[in-house]
Design goal:
Strand content: 5-15%
Helix content: 55-70%
Radius of gyration: 24 Å
Number of helices: 17
Strand order of the largest sheet: 8-9-7-10-11
Order of helices and strands: EEHHEHHEEHHEHHEHEHHEHEHHHEHH
Oligomer: single chain
CATH superfamily of the largest domain: P-loop containing nucleotide triphosphate hydrolases
CATH topology of the largest domain: Rossmann fold
CATH architecture of the largest domain: 3-Layer(aba) Sandwich
Length: about 400
C-alpha cells in the first residue's frame, strides 16, 4: 500500500511511489537493479508509517545510499537543481534526464560507471554555462565533444552511429538464443530496458500457444521440454545415431515447429516497423541467419548466450527452480546432462553459422557484450559522421 509523503510547503500530500524513487535513484547514478532494490527496502520500512516529510524520506534513503558512495548521495540530494529543458526540433521540451542520457551512453558502448559520470558531467557543464534550455542538436554536439575528449574518437563515433540509428527510426530485431538456464530472459529484459525496446517475445510463450492448437496425440514432440524432445521421436530401425545426435534431432524438430510462430512474430514487427527482442531456446542460429538475409529493411542482431562452466549452469538451474512457479530444480538437475549437451550443440551451431556467442557468467558483462554486438551491427549500417548527425554548425 502506498504511503503518504508530506511535501512541506508545497500543497497537497503526495503518495510514496516506489517507481518514482527508483527513477530518482537511477538519475543519481544507480543501476536499475540497485535503485529498485533500495526503493523496495525503503517501501518495506515504511509499511507501518502513515506519513512523513520529504526530508525524513531523504534521510531514510541516504541511510542506505551511503553504501554506494558519497557521489551518489550528492547527486540524490540535489533535487533542487535548476531544470534544464531540452528542446526538440519539433519545438517540444522535456527536462534533461541524467538517467536517460546514461542509458544512451551505455547503449553506445560506455560502461555503467563511465556513463553515470559523463551524464552528470554534461548536466554540470550546462549549468556552469548558465543554460536553462538547450536544443537537442546542441546537446548531441556537447555529448560528442565530451566523449571525444574523455573517452576517445572510437567512443565518440559509436555515439554518432547510435544517434543516426535513432534518427532513422529503423526497426531493430535482436534474436537471442541459448540453452535452458543460461539467462536469456534476464539478459533480454535488461537489454530491452537499456535500448527502450517495449516488445519482447519469449519463444516459450509461442510454444504454449501452439500447444493449445495442436493436441499432444497429434504432435507429442511439441508437448515436452526441448531437452527431452528426442524421447518423442521414433528411432529408425537399424539407426546408428548416438545420444547427442538424437538429442539434436529432437531439438531441431521442436524448434522447426516453433519457428513458424517465430516467423509470424518477426513478420508482424517488420510490418509495423517496431523493434523486437525474440528470445528463447528455439531461436536456432541457422534460422537467425536466414531471418537476417530475408529482412534487409530490419537491423538484425543474432546472439547466442552460453554458460561455459557446468557448476555455474547447475546453480542457475537450482535458482530457476526456486524462483519460477512450476519449474522444479530437481527435474532440471535430473536432466542436466541433456541440457549441457544441448548447449554444446547450440554453441557449435552458432560458431558454424557465424553467430556471436556471449558468455553469461556475469549478467552485467553479458548485457554489455550484447549491447556491443548491437553496436557492431549498427556500425556496419550507419556511417555516423559529424556532418550527417550534427550538421556543420559550431558546438554549443
Amino acid at each position: 500500500m502506498a504511503k503518504t509523503v508530506v511535501i512541506v510547503g508545497e500543497g497537497e500530500p503526495a503518495p510514496f511511489l516506489r517507481g518514482i524513487l527508483t527513477r530518482s535513484l537511477q538519475d543519481a547514478g544507480l543501476s536499475f537493479d540497485d535503485a529498485y532494490g533500495l526503493a523496495t527496502t525503503v517501501r518495506d520500512e515504511l509499511r507501518d508509517v502513515d506519513e512523513l516529510s520529504t526530508d525524513e524520506l531523504r534521510e531514510r534513503v541516504v541511510k542506505y545510499l551511503v553504501e554506494f558512495g558519497d557521489s551518489f548521495v550528492d547527486r540524490f540530494m540535489r533535487p533542487e537543481m535548476p531544470t534544464i529543458l531540452v528542446r526538440a526540433s519539433s519545438g517540444e521540451t522535456a527536462p534533461y534526464s541524467r538517467g536517460r542520457q546514461r542509458m544512451h551512453l551505455e547503449a553506445c558502448g560506455l560502461g555503467p560507471a563511465e556513463a553515470i559520470e559523463l551524464a552528470a558531467g554534461i548536466q554540470d557543464g550546462l549549468m556552469a554555462r548558465g543554460r536553462d534550455e538547450v536544443s537537442s542538436l546542441d546537446l548531441k554536439r556537447l555529448t560528442h565533444q565530451y566523449l571525444e575528449t574523455q573517452h576517445g574518437a572510437d567512443a565518440a563515433h559509436r555515439y554518432l552511429v547510435w544517434e543516426e540509428f535513432l534518427a532513422k527510426g529503423d526497426p531493430l530485431l535482436i534474436l537471442l538464443g541459448g540453452a535452458t538456464g543460461c539467462g536469456k530472459s534476464t539478459v533480454a529484459a535488461h537489454v530491452a530496458h537499456q535500448l527502450e525496446i517495449v516488445r519482447t517475445q519469449p519463444t516459450d510463450m509461442i510454444r504454449e500457444v501452439m500447444r493449445m492448437m495442436m493436441p499432444k496425440k497429434l504432435l507429442p514432440v511439441l508437448h515436452t521440454s526441448t531437452f527431452l524432445a528426442h524421447s518423442e521421436l521414433h528411432s529408425r530401425e537399424g539407426s546408428s545415431e548416438d545420444a547427442d545426435t538424437r538429442l539434436a534431432n529432437g531439438y531441431l524438430t521442436q524448434a522447426g515447429l516453433i519457428s513458424v510462430g517465430c516467423q509470424a512474430v518477426v513478420a508482424r514487427a517488420v510490418s509495423e516497423r517496431v523493434s523486437l527482442i525474440l528470445e528463447g531456446i528455439h531461436v536456432h542460429p541457422e534460422w537467425m541467419v536466414r531471418v537476417a538475409k530475408e529482412s534487409p529493411d530490419v537491423i538484425v542482431t543474432p546472439i547466442m548466450l552460453g554458460v561455459l562452466r557446468p557448476e555455474v549452469l547447475r546453480a542457475r538451474l537450482v535458482g530457476r527452480g526456486h524462483e519460477a512457479p512450476g519449474r522444479r530444480a530437481r527435474r532440471y538437475l535430473k536432466h542436466f546432462d541433456e541440457i549441457w549437451s544441448l548447449q554444446s550443440f547450440l554453441l557449435s551451431e552458432a560458431d558454424r553459422c557465424g553467430v556471436a556467442i556471449v558468455p553469461n557468467g556475469d549478467r552485467e558483462r553479458a548485457v554489455q557484450r550484447v549491447l556491443g554486438s548491437v553496436m557492431q551491427v549498427l556500425s556496419g549500417r550507419y556511417k555516423g559522421t559529424p556532418k550527417r548527425v550534427l550538421g556543420e554548425e559550431s558546438g554549443p
